[in-house]
Amino acid sequence: MIHRRTALGASLGLVILVAGLGALPRATTAQSSAVDLRNVVTGETLDLGDVLPEGKDTPGVKQFLSTGHNPYITDASCLKQGEQTFLAACSGCHGHIGEGKIGPGLNDNYWTYPQNTTDVGLFSTIFGGANGQMGPHNQSLTLDDMLQVTAWVRHLYTGPVGDAEWLNDGQKKTYTPYKLGETFPDDPPGMCAKSGKS
Ligand code: HEC
Fold first, then answer.
1. Which comes out higher in pLDDT, residue 18 or 191?
2. Per-residue pLDDT tens for 113-162?
3. Which atom of ligand 1 is nearest to the CA of 89?
4. Spatial distance between the Cα atoms of 177 and 163, rounded to a whole number of angstroms
5. Is 92's C-beta closer than 6 angstroms to any atom of ligand 1?
6. Which residues of 81-91 are buried (b: 16+ CB within 10 A; e: fewer)?
7. Which end of the chain has the lower number of beta carbons within 10 A, N or C?
């Protein structure tokens, strides 16, 4: 009798363990981030579980969430796609080259929210929104789209290199301000290449 009860207990325990393991991947996706994403206005933590199902664990997103650095800012394949997203989702308010319209300019060194000089800060603003017309994008763009559009916003920058905190020393040396009319080849190789080249 005792023996049976133990067996039952053990198998129940196993069921609970298996159910628990099944739930683990979801929990770790939301919690594995080393970066602290917060709403720029309220300071509230942004819920990384509250995102579109696609594009949430691409290599680029994983790298960003573990390092806080956007690996796309110098990758032509990602910039190309980031530009498309920017033109569809941001330029109506911020202007075609981020020069500012009903929303503030994004291509100079003045920031209403100083944390936008970091990759995590800018990503958080896009994810969680700010005041007024600047709504959250976590349910209209995937995490990967947001990373790409962040890269494009950096690419549009025309201000002094000394204020471009998001660039590392090597990137600062090769920095050239955005020039209107600049083009990229179609489907360049890189982390976001549609044809899978990298
Ligand atoms: C419907 C209009 C609208 C759209 C669409 C929009 N924005 Fe905004 N955005 C604004 C407004 C207005 C503000 C100012 C909000 C504030 O000061 O809190 C703003 C603020 C910002 C800021 C903060 C700038 C600073 O100086 O700190 C960033 C960054 C930003 N937007 C990026 C984006 C990106 C990237 C997109 C596209 C994914 C986007 N916005 C889409 C209207 C918009």
1. 191
2. 999 999 999 999 999 999 999 999 999 999 999 999 999 999 999 999 99
3. 37
4. 12
5. yes
6. bbbebbeebbb
7. N
